[in-house]
Design brief:
heterodimer; A: 120 residues; mainly beta; 7-stranded mixed beta sheet; 4-stranded antiparallel beta sheet; globular; B: 108 residues
Chain lengths: 120, 108
């Protein structure tokens, strides 16, 4: 059973860089699935940030593309998110999720989420 | 960008009743639509993909229908654990995914 676990600092200063990692366990990251990041500001809805394939191919939300980098480390079975020039508007719970090729490319497995607050 | 509009924003029902949640797309998404359930403090859970396919271990009381621009999630008989927020999500214009704003299903 594949499981995902986010990790990273819970507090980032304005104008700094948010860095998170998602560890994949119970299965391979090198499958026919994409791996995504989704965020949710407090009390609000879900926003897709971007995704990566094990080959390193990436796709990003156009609204965040200029500030986002997603990378993969197959040897460590993990993928990572970097979001630079953060502001208070980037305060959110950040989730990693699997985009399931066998389930209509929906997000079928999610991490528990990690809260990141942007504040000085 | 494809915009998904969910209605109603809040739905108040009692256990045992039937729930009907709507999701309308600003342009056709074919059948590339999924539904998720989210409870407080938890990650979303996939319920339905490709408009009508139930995900693994999802009870049969959950069903999805629709295609094009109009979609429905139906819960045939509400259980106490079904009260949550429900989101629709499209992938038709991959590589971009968008979510609806959510419908809160609350106990009446």
């Amino acid at each position: 059973q594949v499981q995902l676990q986010e990790s990273g600092p819970g507090l980032v200063k304005p104008s700094g860089t948010l860095s998170l990692t998602c560890a994949v366990s119970g299965g391979s990251i090198s499958t026919s699935n994409w791996w995504s990041w989704v965020r949710q500001p407090p009390g609000k809805g879900l926003e897709w940030i971007g995704e990566i394939y094990h080959s390193g191919s990436t796709n990003y939300n156009p609204s965040l593309r200029s500030r986002v980098t997603i990378s993969v480390d197959k040897s460590k079975h993990q993928f990572s998110l970097k979001l630079n020039s953060v502001t208070a508007a980037d305060t959110a719970v950040y989730y990693c999720a699997r985009v399931a090729a066998v389930a209509g490319n929906a997000f079928d497995i999610w991490g528990q989420g990690t809260m990141v607050t942007v504040s000085s | 960008e494809i915009v998904l509009t969910q209605s109603p924003a809040t739905l108040s029902l009692s256990p045992g009743e039937r729930a009907t949640l709507s999701c309308r797309a600003s342009q056709s998404v074919s059948s590339d639509l999924a539904w998720y359930q989210q409870k407080p403090g938890q990650a979303p859970r996939l319920l339905i993909y490709d408009a009508f396919n139930r995900a693994t271990d999802i009870p049969a009381r959950f069903s999805g229908s629709g295609s094009g621009t109009d979609f429905t999630l139906t819960i045939s008989s509400l259980e106490p654990e079904d009260f949550a927020i429900y989101y629709c999500q499209q992938r038709n214009n991959w590589p971009m995914y968008t979510f609806g704003q959510g419908t809160k299903l609350e106990i009446k």
